[in-house]
Specification:
157 residues, Rossmann fold, 6-stranded parallel β-sheet, two-stranded antiparallel sheet, 8 strands, globular, NAD(P)-bd_dom, NAD(P)H-binding
Length: 157
């Protein structure tokens, strides 16, 4: 079983890659091979360029799909789902966002909802993860002995 990791040079996908370990069953998709993690198979491609994805997705059973936040995210996700279907991928695990919905109050939430819906309608096996918080973001909220932006224990903040 081969697993393709997208966004492999970023914080979240790097952690996913670390949790999987370095095996012959893991392939990473990167735009720049010189930035690829060591010890895994590397495929060079870009989710914004569907013509670059055939080789990356070939022979893959499962895809970890993480797209960069922004207005291009649904386009990149759509390209990945298309490439996965063409390659016979069985399952896509997509990182979405908490509160993703077509009526979400943020553009990011609405864009994620579009990509979630497209994946669900793709005919592929799928899992959507909607994390609420990342511990590594906490470290950026510390200045000296002060933690900024902490959550209230009762959820009121």
């Amino acid at each position: 079983m081969t697993i393709l990791i997208t966004g492999a040079t970023g914080t979240v996908s790097s952690a996913v890659l670390t949790s999987l370990g370095r095996t012959d069953d893991v392939r990473v998709l990167v735009r720049d091979a010189s930035r690829a993690p060591e010890g895994v198979e590397v495929a060079v491609g870009d989710l914004d360029d569907p013509s670059s994805l055939d080789t990356a997705f070939k022979g893959v059973d499962t895809v970890w799909l993480l797209t960069a936040m922004g207005p291009q995210a649904p386009h990149a996700g759509m390209n990945a789902v298309w490439a996965a279907r063409q390659a016979g991928v069985r399952h896509v695990v997509r990182m979405s966002a908490i509160g993703a919905a077509h009526d979400a109050p943020t553009r990011n939430g609405r864009l994620h909802a579009m990509s979630d819906a497209e994946l669900a309608a793709s005919g592929l096996g799928w899992t959507v993860i909607r994390p609420a918080f990342f511990m590594q973001n906490l470290f950026g909220s510390v200045a000296g002995a002060t933690l900024y932006g902490g959550s209230a224990r009762d959820g009121s903040a």
